[in-house]
Amino acid sequence: MQTEGLARAISGPQFFAVAFGCIVGVAWIVVLGDLVGRAGPVGTALALGLAACAILLIAFCYAEMAARQPGAGGELVFAYGLAGPPAAYAAGWTLGLVYTAACAFQAISMGQLTALLFPAIEGPVLYSLLGQDVRLGSVLIGGGLVIAIWVLNALGARESARVQAWITYARLTLMGGFLVVALMYADPVNLQPLIAGETSPAKLAAFLSVLATAPFWFGGFNVVVTASEESATSMAVMGRALIWAVVAAAIFYIMLVLAVGALLPQATLVSLELPAAQAFEVALQSPLMTKLVLITAVLGSLTAWNSLVLAGSRIFFALGRARLCPESLGKVNRHRAPGRAVALVSLASLLALPLGRGFIFPLVNVTSACFGLVYLVTCLALIRERRASPLAPEFSVPGGLPTIYAATAAAFLISAVAIIQPWFASGGEIPPEWIMLGAWGSLALGIWVVRRGRFHTISEAERSTLMQGAAHNKGGDLP
Fold first, then answer.
1. pLDDT exceeds 60 at position 228
2. Residues 6 or more apart from 9 whose CB is under 8 A from it?
3. Quick check: 313 pLDDT over 60?
4. 202 Cβ contact partners less than 8 Å away, ≥ 6 residues apart
């Protein structure tokens, strides 16, 4: 019988790399022009700064909950403490959708990202599906990288986190380089108008439209807590790494918007297909700088992908270990990694590759709503934990309960906006995001009803012990 748990192998700097690498992936290179076009450079920077403050409140709650309940699966464990097996099952099912869909998206997108550097690599069009071309080169590149990341994560958290740290700190160096160049050639005149809109109500609407994207821009910081059981450092160090990852992401986004926004007049900037990269070529006549930014983006996709595989596999591992899905997913391999759970997430990505971007985009659109809901669950769980066990853990939320209540309110607003906004965008019709969430929830409910007899093969005392796997992972830790 297997007695070993997950290896304790992730250091503080590596936790920072896991979180930052997932938060700052590749979207910034594509969406920058849209944000500046909506709210202007300063309006966008202010909205992202305010969004970062709201997310930071929630991140404090995550850090304390991880210190109180450092088990694989993160929010799944928190939900179990809040409302028992049904809540843990729902949280796990929700996050399983989010992380698996996001991994598939990274696999599908990598070929197109690589083609920005080497245009011929995409290869011929194989077919079109849901309005999007599926190309041979994209499928082969995505498939090869799925296998590489699969192998890396099957080797264990030590190797996965080590590679993540190398790539992330190389990216930070490249980011600093092109931001310094942009600031050197920036012209503050190009920041006008500071906030887009002819009237005050229009300016406010533009500002709020960017503010509503907070879960999209800062989603990913929570991947750290799914691996808290594998910490080779204290929960205080892990918590600080999570917080600093959010702060670093906010600084990068704000500097990017202001520095690149000052390179070109706004009308020119927003007309570019990839403004964060092409602004250098247009303003400085420097294709080399454009390539540098594109390389940074490709590396960002890899770090986000690796973090998502790590997080998704820990969710399925925790579900299997707690007997809330097939028990085989809760086993570790000889490297003390959740090998079967890693395989499940990777195989899902391989199966999604031939479907192309047209299939996966709608799934990715529901992630903001899912993240908003698990943020709320985590904040509510912390309020309950504070009342049940007032003893301070290794990491405590600064400001105590008032900060936690503020974080809960922020999480509620984020989840409400993410759920309601698609209805307005669809012109009053039932949005596809609602249909997908309903279908996914119905499937989860159906499986719960059919399999719930198997869920009761262990007592709740045993399940609670399995959920808190970190307490049984004291011996044999890797140095």
1. yes
2. 156, 157, 158, 161, 230, 232, 478
3. yes
4. 196
Map residue 132 onto helix, strand or coil: strand
Residue written as token pair 């602004």: 279
- Report the distance separating Cα 293 and Cα 259, nearest Å: 14
Q: Is residue 120 part of a domain?
A: yes
Q: Which residue has the tokens 């012109």?
A: 427
Q: What's the number of CA atoms in the CB half-sphere (13 Å) around residue 220?
A: 31
Token pair listed for 351: 């199966």
Alpha-carbon gap, residue 18 to 8, rounded angstroms? 15
Q: How far apart are CA 248 and CA 253, in angstroms?
A: 9
Q: How does pLDDT run across 319-362, given as a tens digit for each residue? A: 999 988 888 899 999 999 999 999 999 998 888 888 766 665 55
Instruction: Return the biggest CA–CA distance within the chain.
Output: 69
pLDDT for 473 beyond 80 = no
Question: What is the mean predicted confidence (pLDDT) over 194-221?
Answer: 79
Structural domain contains residue 229: yes
| Structural domain span for residue 44 | 12-467
What predicted TM-score, i.e. pTM, was given to this entire model? Answer: 0.90
Q: Which amino acid is at 214?
A: A
Which helix (H) or strand (E) segment is 135 a member of? Answer: strand 132-135
For tokens 């080590």, the residue is: 162
Nearest partner of 155 among 395, 379, 410, 333, judged by Cα: 333
Two tokens at 64? 């304390």
Number of domains making up the chain: 1
Question: What pLDDT, on the 0 to 100 scale, is given for residue 472?
Answer: 43
Q: What is the CATH number of the domain that holds 117?
A: 1.20.1740.10
Does 255 reside within a domain? yes
